[in-house]
Amino acid sequence: MSLSTLSPRTAPSAPGNSSGRHGRGFWLIALAFLTAMAFSTVPAPLYPLYMARDGFSTFMVTVVFAAYAVGVLISLVLAGHISDWVGRKRILIPALALEVVAAALFLSDPSLPMLLLARLVTGLGIGMVTATATAYLHELHTAHRPDASRQRFEVVSIAANIGGLGVGSLIAGFLAQYVDVPLRTPYLVFVVLLLASIVAVAVTPETVPARLTTPAYRPQRISADHGNRAGYLAAASGAFASFAVFGLFTSVAPGFVSGALHHPSRALAGGIVFAVFGGAAVAQTLTNRLTAPAKVRLGLLAQVVGVPTLLVGMHTANLSAFLVGGVVAGIGAGVLLKAAIGTVAAMAAPARRGEALAGLFLIGYLGLSLPALGIGIATRAVSTATAMDWFTGLLLVMLAGVAVLFRRGTATRTR
């Protein structure tokens, strides 16, 4: 079915007549956003259980993880922008339904092919959710509080997005540790939460006015040419480095904690992932008032300190050093990612902002999957700790390059 043949929607109510509904809708969408993002990290603390049951290698875990990133990339390019045309609800509800389908796949057959398919479907849904829910929250906030600053929207959207990634691992880890059937119970819980989220979206007012005609479908355009190529490349490389750290903790790290560090607790594995993403979300919120250059410096410094500290924890089997390094690295990744997004949003013309951000997230999600997959491949020949040595060295070189590119981008902007 083409987009132009979709049945007409009811136009959204005027903000002045439904401010209360928009206010309630803001929180309903925030909860739906958080639930979807949380579901995407449910498998993270469960990977060691899959490995123990089916004999998965670290490499296969990273392949399963990469399937998720591939799904996100496909969805970002093909569907991430369509809600601008057909409405937020018409994209968000099917996206959440895809997450329910993914949960059903996890429950139906935990074999490797089904895990790959389930993660791919999860990524397809998340690619649709991220851009749509963020835009929806902004519009509901504006309709409810037209004269207020954007601070509430920014804090809540960050908490739902980055914080949700940590919440999913935390819930899954505790359920897997303390409830029967650890490879099924977390998905059953999230089926209920996702179905409730679909209802929450359904009762929230639409914010995109109905169109008499819908534009002809085309994939999301992606471009790096936005007036300051050096600045854009700096932001993109910063996003790549930030997502690389996040990918490490949602793929390889839980298995390392269980194996090399000899801490098999699923609750601990989920708690570590939560701490990394929670630190990133809190840091993003607390650095709202910092200038972009200050955010870049803080983000780079925290990653330069955090990742080597994490590496020391791995080599010495010191859980405390591993955890501290992970949290500091997560803080750096969160702040650097926020600086990258703000840089691109500021440099792009309004008519091409979606295109510019799509390119940024495309590169970011490559950072989520490729380094983790590289670590997995390396572990077939060397130990995980040695593979992490290589990862750390490459990341530090990349961060140095990010610093140079941001400096050049700033110089170009001020000429």
Automatic annotation (TrEMBL):
Its main location: membrane. It comes from the Bacteria. It is a multi-pass membrane protein. Residues 1-20 are annotated as: Disordered. It is found in: Cell membrane. The chain crosses the membrane at residues 26-47, 59-79, 91-108, 114-137, 158-179, 185-209, 230-256, 268-286, 298-317, 323-349, 356-378, 390-406. Keywords: Cell membrane, Membrane, Transmembrane, Transmembrane helix, Transport. InterPro entries: MFS (IPR011701), MFS_dom (IPR020846), MFS_trans_sf (IPR036259), MFS_Transporters (IPR050171). PANTHER family: MAJOR FACILITATOR SUPERFAMILY MFS_1 (PTHR23517:SF13), RESISTANCE PROTEIN MDTM, PUTATIVE-RELATED-RELATED (PTHR23517). This is MFS transporter. It comes from Micromonospora tarensis.
